[in-house]
Amino acid sequence: MNDIDALWLRRLDLNNMVALHALLSTRSVSESARRLCLGQPAVSHLLKQLREQLQDPLLCRHGQGMMPTPFAEALLPELEAWLGAGERLFRQRQTELDKVERTVRLALPDPLEAALLPGLLKACREQAPGLSVDVAALSSAQALAALESAQIDYAVGYFPYPTPRLERQTLLRNGFACLYHRDQLQLPPEVGAGEVAAWPHVYTSYTGEAVSLIDHYLQRHGLQRRILVRTASLLAIPPILVAVPALAVLPAAVCAIIGRHHAGIASARIDEPSLQLDVELLWHPRVNQDLVHQFVRAALTGQCADGRLGAASGTAA
């Protein structure tokens, strides 16, 4: 507010306002000392300071006790309201979840939306019904920049580079699988590098990287794949696989999600244990102590704790 006299407030010892409230409420130095856990001489000294700062006696001797001045009587209800407002202001982190009205902003690729959002929204409905979720599909680089600038609160996906200014937590580790349609191809439950390279690929990448983990894997075996088509959308993959004999190499959990919603789509796991992808949750440390954000992180990580979650990032595969 523009009408706050900051210089005057600096001269006023705001720490003494709690003592002033105790004195005016109890009308007793000894009782105020007990309430404030201070000695009586210390409280008497505070009363002297307050009288000088406020230029009013505040409390005057009356028989065996003390009586407030008219100024002090008028001050007490205002002071109580002011201290109560200050306590509520600085205890906001203790707000009950069921009374929160807020939006949490997430960066999630398509398959993560399908895997994580139902569980998160269910937890919100049960514990924080006033919490809404806003989701954006961003590349890894875009998500990191958005976190740094506070445009989003969380990013979930594959982030292979160090992020020293951000917090991060691994949600799950994923192997890779080949997605295909049974009417076009017949593959065993597990395939090696030769079978992966034998068929044309439908290629998708949310990161926009030209070289992927799978390309490196094939190169180690002296092989390379032929890209039939590059697409930015996972939604295009099933219709393409229905139409042509091709495969799409994706994180195994993504394949499981797509397979559950498209008849005839199957997957074959790549038999390379070292071929793993970490799905991570990233956030800015400024929200570490916020109650709402603690709830969101617990809801997201809880879904992955048992390893059954069908989710993964939209990295190049």
Structural description of this entry:
- It is built from 12 helices and 13 strands.
- It has 317 residues and is an alpha/beta fold.
- It folds into 3 domains: 6-90, Arc Repressor Mutant, subunit A; 99-173 and 277-304, Periplasmic binding protein-like II (D-Maltodextrin-Binding Protein, domain 2, 3-Layer(aba) Sandwich), CATH 3.40.190; 176-270, D-Maltodextrin-Binding Protein, domain 2, CATH 3.40.190.10.
- It has helices spanning 6-11, 16-26, 29-36, 40-54, 70-90, 110-127, 140-148, 193-197, 213-220, 237-243, 252-261, 291-304, and strands at residues 59-62, 65-68, 102-107, 131-136, 154-157, 167-174, 176-181, 190-191, 201-204, 227-231, 248-251, 265-270, 277-283.
- Helices cover 42% and strands 21% of the residues.
Provide keyphrases for this structure:
YidZ_PBP2; D-Maltodextrin-Binding Protein, domain 2; rod-shaped; 3 domains; transcription; transmembrane; WH_DNA-bd_sf; 317 residues; alpha/beta; 5-stranded mixed sheet; disordered C terminus; Arc Repressor Mutant, subunit A; 4-stranded mixed sheet; DNA-binding
CATH superfamily of the largest domain: Periplasmic binding protein-like II
Highest-level CATH class of the largest domain: Alpha Beta
Q: What overall form do the CA principal axes indicate? A: rod-shaped
CATH-defined architecture of the largest domain: 3-Layer(aba) Sandwich
Integer tally of domains: 3
Remind me, CATH topology of the largest domain?
D-Maltodextrin-Binding Protein, domain 2
